[in-house]
Design brief:
With about 475 residues, the protein is an alpha/beta fold. The chain contains 18 helices and 15 strands. It starts with a strand and ends with a helix.
């Protein structure tokens, strides 16, 4: 019997949130379905607060024949440390890396001699095909589409693999391989919650829009589960895992309005009494009242819209092209339905002026948003935004541990990073210290016992800005 261990790399950050690692869980579920005899283990470093040494010690205790690693860009250093430690202990152990960082920063990943292969993009089919060859002792990786490796010391990429078209063919992510209740007591995406017992779920992949800051790890060809499969998975989460709240994390959940309506109607018909939130993944300027009504009736209590910029020029530059006036009305309509509404904004785009940054702040301040998040632009390698910044001759961060959006690391805009930080802090305070907004937050907050803890978190965030 073969043994595979999968590790989700983890790195503590200033404003850390925790979430079941759906990508590697989906891979695990697919592998388990395809292999007849397989011992499979999944380790999430962040949820269990494991050091590199502890994670490798645990992984090797299962005597793996293959080690798989998954990492975001800011976790790249941890991924390389995991690979180095594994090879130091067992030099012959095959190590495969996947996820957003290896998929986009391919050349950098393949410079690491401790990584034998990288999987690019969606991992289920590619990793399975590669694992079959590795575990059989074969040495013909060039026949596997969608991977990178070294031949005679030189990096080589195989032809890209087509996206998985039929998402209905994929099993439910392996929630049984993680300690799901552990996540219920950790800070989650979206922060506020109605019910403790939650799970994240994605029912579609990719987004047809072409925002330059996006990794596009799933491509741009939108694909979705049928409503029947989505409802099957929702029922399984309730009946077998005790889940009472769903956090949808699709890239663009509301692209197909009929599908959204069918899922919502099906949840009501089946008596799936979930509380529902969307911390991302709803395109605001294509939202309509009918869809909002459906979402509300199905249990939605919180929605986030990614505005990003209040400047039409910046909207065009980053190819987001949000219809700003339409979205402002959608935000107001969401508020009128008594759904908590959150906004995402980014400041510090390449060449962005002080006036354009202020347009973003003014948009947020004038809106009916209840909460808002202001992030600092980071051009991740492998994204079009990264190339836009380089074309303009701007210095971009190269060190993986600088690839986050909690603190400005670079001067891409016309406003120095230190001043930009002060502008965000001032706007943050102006946004939240409006009496009507504080009242709406208090009125609609789904679990008021959380409010003291969130106030403390607010004060901690403010304190980090002052440092």
């Amino acid at each position: 019997m073969s043994s595979i261990v999968l590790i989700k790399a983890g790195l503590a950050t200033t404003r850390q949130h925790f979430s079941p690692p759906l990508g590697i869980m989906s891979l695990a579920s697919y592998l388990r379905d395809r292999f007849k005899d397989l011992e499979l283990q999944l380790i999430d470093m962040s949820a269990h607060r494991l050091s590199v040494e502890q994670a490798i010690e645990l992984a090797l205790s299962f005597s793996p024949d293959l080690l798989g690693l998954s990492a975001m860009s800011f976790e790249a250093q941890v991924m390389h440390q995991l690979a180095a430690r594994a090879k130091a202990r067992q030099p012959a152990l095959p190590v495969v890396a996947g996820g957003p960082h290896p998929s986009t920063a391919r050349a950098a990943a393949l410079e690491d001699p401790n990584l034998d292969f990288i999987v690019i993009g969606e991992g289920e089919l590619t990793f399975h095909e590669l694992a079959l060859r590795i575990l059989a002792g074969e040495s013909a990786p060039a026949e596997v589409q969608g991977i990178g490796f070294r031949r005679n010391g030189e990096p080589e990429l195989t032809p890209p693999r087509e996206e998985i078209v039929d998402l209905n063919s994929l099993p439910l992510p392996a929630y049984d391989l993680i300690d799901l209740p552990r996540y219920w007591d950790l800070p989650r995406f979206g922060t506020a919650y109605a019910r403790r017992e939650y799970a994240t779920l994605s029912t579609s992949r990719a987004c047809p829009y072409r925002c330059t800051y996006c990794h596009r790890i799933f491509g741009t060809r939108y694909r979705a589960q049928s409503p029947e499969i989505a409802l099957r998975d929702l029922q399984t989460l309730r009946d077998e895992h005790g889940v009472r709240e769903i956090i949808f994390v699709d890239d663009c959940f509301n692209l197909d309005r009929k599908r959204v309506a069918d899922i919502c109607d099906g949840m009501i018909e089946r008596g799936l009494d979930f509380s529902i939130s969307f911390p991302n993944g709803l395109r605001g300027d294509v939202m309509d009242r009918t869809t909002l009504d459906k979402l509300k009736k199905a249990g939605t209590y919180r929605i986030t819209y990614a505005v990003e910029s209040g400047s039409p020029r910046v909207q065009a530059f980053i190819k987001k092209n949000v219809k700003l006036e339409v979205l402002q009305e959608v935000i107001a309509e969401t508020d009128r339905l008594d759904i908590m509404v959150d906004g995402f904004f980014m400041v510090g785009f390449p060449g962005e002026t002080r006036e354009e940054i202020q347009m973003t702040f003014d948009y947020a301040l004038a809106s009916r948003l209840h909460t808002a998040n202001f992030w600092f632009v980071t051009p991740f390698p492998g994204t079009e935004l990264y190339e836009q910044a380089r074309t303009l001759g701007l210095a971009v961060p190269e060190q993986p541990d600088h690839l986050h959006y909690f603190d400005p690391e670079t001067d891409l805009s016309q406003v120095p990073a230190a001043e930009l930080k002060r502008m965000v802090q001032k706007t943050f305070l102006r946004f939240y210290l409006k009496p009507w907004r504080l009242w709406r937050i208090f009125k609609l907050f789904p679990n008021k016992r959380q409010l003291p803890a969130l106030l403390l978190r607010f004060l901690k965030i403010s304190a980090t800005w002052k440092s």
